[in-house]
Amino acid sequence: GKEKWPRGEEKVWKECMRDVDTEVSSITKSFVNHVQTSLARQPYNLDNLGAYQAAALSVRDNLLVNWNETALQYTRKAPKRAYYLSLEFLMGRTLDNALLNLGLKDQYSQGVKKLGFSMEDILDQERDAALGNGGLGRLAACYLDSSASQELPVWGYGLRYKYGIFQQLISPAGEQLEAPDPWLDNQNPWELPRLDVAYEVRFYGHADRLNDGTPRAVWAGGQEVLAVAYDVMIPGCYTKTTNNLRLWESKPKRGFDLNSFNAGNYEGAVESSNSAAAITSVLYPNDHTSFGKELRLKQQYFWTAASLADILRRFKNIGKPITEFPDYVAIQLNDTHPTLAIPELMRILIDEEDQPWATAWQIVTNTFFYTNHTVLPEALEKWPVPLLEHLLPRHLQIIYDINLLFLQSVEKKFPGDRDRLARMSLIEEGFPKQVRMAYLACIGSRKVNGVAELHSDLVKTTILKDFVEFEGISKFGNVTNGITPRRWLDQCNPELSALISTTLKVDKAVWLKELTRLEELLPKTEDEAFRKEWAAIKQRNKERLAHHVQTTLGLTINTKAMFDVQIKRLHEYKRQTLNILGVIHRYLTLKNMTAEEKKKVNPRVVFFAGKAAPAYYIAKLVSAPSLPLPLPLYFIAWLTPFGTHQTIRLIVNVARIINEDPDTKDLLSLYFLPDYSVSLAEVLIPASDISQHISTAGTEASGTSNMKFCLNGGLLLGTVDGANIEIAEEVGESNVFFFGHLTPAVEDLRYQHTYHPIPIEEKCPALANVLNQVSAGLFGDADVYEPLLNTIRQGDHYLLSDDFDSYIAALAMVDEAYLDQTEWVKKSIRTTAKMGKFSSDRAINEYAESYWNIEAQRIA
Ligand code: 73E
Fold it and tell me: Which site among 271, 273, 371, 811 is 20 to 30 Å from 281 CA-CA?
């Protein structure tokens, strides 16, 4: 039917439009005002997207006031500030978060209702800002929220990618297809273009040492591009403090080469403008792999150079001598991606500020802090020396100089230890030689940390062992990751948040910033009415998820079943394959059961979501039309989706069979939800009964979704890895389901796989049977899966065959525990109650106190 216009109450619309002084709230007025002015739209036929934009602009006005006051106060008081350099900020949506942090959600909801809109529909119009791959990028976003909420003077610096993480489509055959994510297409009301804040960044050219008794050199020639700032406001929770996230966009310094144009070379004239814009065009979608691509290195330098120039300019405004730089500035390096900031600051101090080498190095090593996020060898960044020499000739000189002095000091402490020098050199020998970025980040920083206890120990005993021996243990620490309870409880699970406030008899403004107060829920485990309410909320969250899947995918989900969830990037080490093979095992077991036996089985719905890294994505996006045909063989191999792509395909095809099997479908069903995102996580996490974090021990540095599930009362099934260990320490081992070999066993097991392999039929008959059923074509496409199955039969680097039996046993324990619903709900309450430690407020305060030495600033 035709919609009636205007929506909502006509009187309210009219009064807002005439701006007469009535009882209509200022919120409604500002909303209508933006419809008429900023959007230049007819108020009477506004759609949901327009309403979202008007609401966003109106909220933005509120934020702007606070943001300006915060900036002004930081400038006036000039406290020491910290800067978080991250190539990824996985922010998700902003409107709901801003409304909650401002404490204006109820008022806005009522306001838009009067105008005929539902807040839920409006919020749903917003596109995710998905400028990140996974945990590392989402951690950066949580840390910004916590910094502002804790009133700490912290700014983020990143890149304004035109395209975020690709959109994932799943073909009917189960193949992952990637589409670009043009997230800025509808305009982004949350960013403020700062065309006045721009820096020139140089690439290529030549570097000539002055050889005048100083370490100076002149770097000239090459290409210069412009970095333009876009600011994103970061509101704290119930505070005026509104910090800044500054994202750089690349632009050609001159849009157009007039000489070439006049010479009739139109293509040549726009070429430089194309290559400059390419730098910030797309986020690299491969996490845990270092690709060595020139464009990625350009991104890293472009971003670090612009950020440092900006930080230095701000420091100079204070008017202090450059030697006091570290008293005013701390820079956190989020993994090794911004490591070029170290030679870049050396370059500025030496070549532009004319400082002696030792002074410059002193400043640098008191300014930077380095967080390592992974010990997987394939993720450790190394850049080929020839590439660096070509793109950043001066920086390569500086890196060689740093290395020379460093190795001299190592030689002094360990005379004659040639092996040690080779191991510790910043330059790895080989063809080509490569720069080891983790080593450079380590020696150029004041402190180094890992992201969970186990991981930090592994950093100290494996990849940076020699550096601990040389520099002393006190330089190396741990800051266990955290998550913001604003987004990951209050926003995604409003009913649970409300129940907690009522139960604790304290406003959420208090406990959301003092999360250990959740412990006060503990006595409530013995309160039956409370348990009922707790369980009812979980049930409604499951129904909300089911409704979402129904409306987006047209699938009907059994909400009476246990919801079992594994959502994260697809990666061999995270072992989604173990999970799907476990599902197949369950299916085969059910198929062999009598009707009587089946009656004792609790129904289970298994959810997967996650993106696999497309190795050829960038190539496809940038140069798809010009691929040479026919393709050489090695190229086809490279394009063939492998490993994780086959796992997705297996999941989809297993789902197709078992969801239709009348023998089992009431007891087991399986869904792969496409295009996993922050917003989808916000629906999935509160609905989970059990979630899986099943990496091979020692491979998942921390994990952060484990914390999100537990905070929402979902129980954890996992390996003894990363932050799972600390979660268990907090909630008690009886409230988590652990399985699998421990970290110290992994090396030996891998050795056995290589040198004393045992046939899988012997070693793990249950797993062998599952693999054979897949090979036999039970789920179709048998030959497609053979390479994947063979990685388990031979080599088995991630030890699926070693952990399978204990995994199946752990799943059975989950089933058993779920049968006793009273006890299960108690576990659920206890889990939430003990999650206080994992607030990102705790983590950010550790950085502020023990690393950066910065203090909270009250914005009056
Ligand atoms: O365990 C997670 C950790 O919780 C780890 O795998 C992830 O970082 C999270 C936050 O600390 C991570 N991402 C990357 N390395 N570790 C990475 C590597 C290269 C490119 C992009 C991301």
Answer: 371
- Return the structure tokens found at 287: 């996490």
CA 792 – CA 192 distance, rounded (Å): 50
Q: How many angstroms separate the CA atoms of 164 and 43, rounded?
A: 32
E strand or H helix at 92: strand 89-92
Q: Look at residue 335 and give its three-state secondary structure.
A: coil
78-88+130-479 matches 527-614+630-834 in fold? yes
- Band of pLDDT at residue 593, cut at 50, 70 and 90: very high
Selecting from 3.40.50.450, 3.40.50.2000, 3.90.226.10, 3.30.310.250, what CATH number does the domain 78-88+130-479 have?
3.40.50.2000
Spatial strand order in the sheet of 690-693: 668-672, 604-609, 562-567, 690-693, 715-719, 736-739
**ipTM of the shown complex:** 0.99
Q: At the top level of CATH, which class does the domain 527-614+630-834 belong to?
A: alpha beta
Q: What is the pTM of this model?
A: 0.95
Q: What is the mean pLDDT of residues 47-61?
A: 97
SS3 567: strand
Q: How far is the CA of 178 from the centre of ligand 1 (A)?
A: 21
How far is 800 from 216, CA to CA, in rounded Å? 55
> Which residues participate in catalysis according to the annotation?
373, 568-569, 574, 704, 708
Which amino acid, 20? Answer: V
Q: What residues flank ligand 1, with Cβ below 6 Å?
A: 133, 135-136, 139, 287-288, 335, 373-374, 379, 451, 481, 700-704, 722
Is it true that the peptide bond before 630 is cis, omega within 30 degrees of 0?
yes
CA–CA gap between residue 238 and residue 779 (Å, rounded): 53
Domain ranges of the chain: 1-77+94-127, 78-88+130-479, 527-614+630-834
Task: Write the pLDDT tens digit of every residue in 259-283.
Answer: 777 777 777 766 776 789 999 999 9
Backbone angles phi, psi at 172, to 5 degrees: -55, -30
